[in-house]
Amino acid sequence: MLRTPDALLLLSLVGAANALYKQWIPDTNYENQTNWDHGAVPCGNDKVKFPALRKVSVFVETTHAVQEMILPVDGEFILNSGAGFYVVSGQDPDCGAGVTTQFKDSESVEWFNPALWQAAANLDDLQRGNFLFSVHEESVPCGYDDVVFKARSSFKVDTSSSESSIPVKSVSVLGKKFESRSEFSEYLGTRSGQLQFHGSSAVTVGHPGCEDPSGCDCGNSANRERICGSVTCASPNCRKPLLPEGHCCDVCGAIVTLYTAASFNLQTYRQRIHHLFLTLPQYKSIQLGMSKVFKPQRLMGFIPFGSSAVIQVVILDGEEGKQAERLARDISKDARAHGSNLGITGDEFQASSGSSSDQSGAKAATVVGVVFGVLIMAALIVVTVFLVHKGVVRMPSMPSMPSMPSLPSLRSLKRDSGVGELGGPLDHGFDNPMFDQPNALPDVLGSNGTGANSSISLTQSGVYFVNPVYDDNETEFSA
Ligand SMILES: *[C@@H]1O[C@H](CO)[C@@H](O)[C@H](O)[C@H]1NC(C)=O
C-alpha cells in the first residue's frame, strides 16, 4: 500500500485550494429545539415569547401553529418561502397541554470560540459532514479562509476582538457569497447584518487567499488569548502531554513535524495521508490536523534562533495516544520513503508516551550546521595562529602590559617545539574534506514534485457554488 504514491498524487485532482471553509455552527432558527427553553419547538397550544430586549434575527423554515406570540422590541423573522404562523382555534390534538415557551437568550456566542466552528476542505465536504480537525487557533477562520453561515439559517455572532477588524477571504450568509469588501460592509449596515453581527470589530471580506501550495500560517496568534479564553482543557491522561503550536491545551497523542521543500503541496499531502492511513480501521477514531505553523527553532536544543515554517501534523486518538503514536511512526516512515517525491526534506515526531525520533534529516542538517560552525571557528583560530607563527601577521606587541606575559611565551613555545611548519593539526584545518563534500541534505528541489504542483493548479480553479434559491424566494418582515 505504501508503494503507490503516484496514484495517490493523481487523486488530489479532486481537491480544492489550500484554504479551508469554516462554517459557523450555532443558529437562531425557529425550528432548532436547542433555541427554546423547554428544549422543544413550540406547537399549537403553546404561548411563544421572545425576550423584549433580545435583538434577534430568526429564520423560519416552515409554518407553525401558535396560541399566542409575544415579540421583542427589535428583531426580525426571515421566512423561508411558504413559512409562516397561524393560530389554532381550540385545542391542537397533536400538541401537549400547552406551555409558555421562550426563545433562549443565547449565551455569548463569540466568533473566537473555536468550538463553534467546523472546517472542511471544500463546500461538498462541509455539506456531507466530512470535517477536518484543527488546532484551536485554526478552528476559528484564518485570514485566507472562506466563512460559511448555513444557507437555511440565521444567527447572531459577537465579533468583539482586540484588533479593529477580522479579515477573511469571503463570507456566505443565507446562501449569498460576499467576496468584495464594500459589498459586505454594505450588508453589515442592513437590518439583518446588524442583528446577525455585533461586537467591537467588523468582519472584513476580500483578504487574499492562500496562494502558497505548501500552505499558509493562519495568523490567529494575535487573538490567541481570546481564543483560548473560551476553551476548557481536560486534564491529559498520559506520561508526557504535548502542546501543539496553535493549540490551547496539552494533549495526549503525537506531533509529526515535517520540513519541506518548494515542491511540497499541503492539500495533496493531506489527501495522501487520508487515503493511506485514516481510512484504515485501526485509525478510525484518530483526529488528525495538518497545517503550516511557525515553530520556534533552537540551536542544539536550547539556544533560540528565530522561528521557521514547518508542517505540523497533530494526531489525537482520544485515549492515551498509543494509536496516535503508531500513526506518527507510519507517517514518519512514509515521509522518509517518499520524501523526495513529496517535497519533504526532514521529519521528526514526539509522542506523549515520551518517545520521539531524533535521527531525521532536518535535525541532522542542524547538527551538520553546528559542526560546520565549530569547524570554521577552529579553522580560523588555527589559521590565525599559523599566520602569526609564520610572521605573516604580527600580533600587536604590548610591551607595556606586564599582565599578558603568556603571548610571547606561547610564541616561543611553538617555535621551540617545532610543531610549526605544516604540522598535523594545522593541515586538518585546511584540508578537511567535509568542506568540499556536497551538502548532506537530500537533494529535493530537482525531484519530480511537479506532478503535485500541476494538480493543485487544476484544483485551485475549484468548484464552489452559490445557492441561488434563497435570494429569490426569501421574504422578510420585521416584527
Ligand atoms: C441547533 O443548534 C445547535 C446549537 O446551536 C447546533 O449544534 C445544531 O447543529 C443545530 N441543529 C440543527 C438541526 O441545525
From TrEMBL:
Membrane topology: Single-pass type I membrane protein
Keywords from the UniProt entry: Cell membrane, Membrane, Protein transport, Signal, Transmembrane, Transmembrane helix, Transport
Protein name: Protein amnionless
One GO term describing the cellular component: endocytic vesicle
One GO BP: receptor-mediated endocytosis
Signal sequence interval, chain numbering: 1-19
UniProt subcellular location: Cell membrane
Transmembrane segments: 364-388
Pfam families named in the record: Amnionless
Lineage top rank: taxon: Eukaryota
